[in-house]
Amino acid sequence: MGLGAACDPAASTCAAPFDQCVAGAGGGYCSSSCTTSDDCSGGYACNAESVCERPPVGLNTPCTSDADCAGTEATFCDSFMSHACLVQGCSVSPNNCFTGYDCCDLSAFGLPAPLCVPAGACMQ
To answer: DSSP for 1-39?
Structure first.
């Protein structure tokens, strides 16, 4: 099975080189172990568990409203700056965003839930 193929983390059917079955929000998927994100392909990034993690479905999809992001893991449309779908409802501590993203609490600016933004971009 190839990178991103569906799998069951309890009974992995993944094969080398993508022999890791990772539990994801949309179900398990085949991936590989890594040391750095350079070891990953397809937009995947090396996470803290040394496994190539799939980016959230819909992340950075161009949008003009939340409706453009509906049905994905990135349900918030940043229609102000990036005009892209972002993941909302993250945890600031510990940060549970995709590798390379930080959880940013922008409630002072009227946003209802924290957002995963590119690392270093949070202006609180």
So the answer is: --TT-EE-TTS----TTS-EEE--TTSEEEE-B-SSGGG
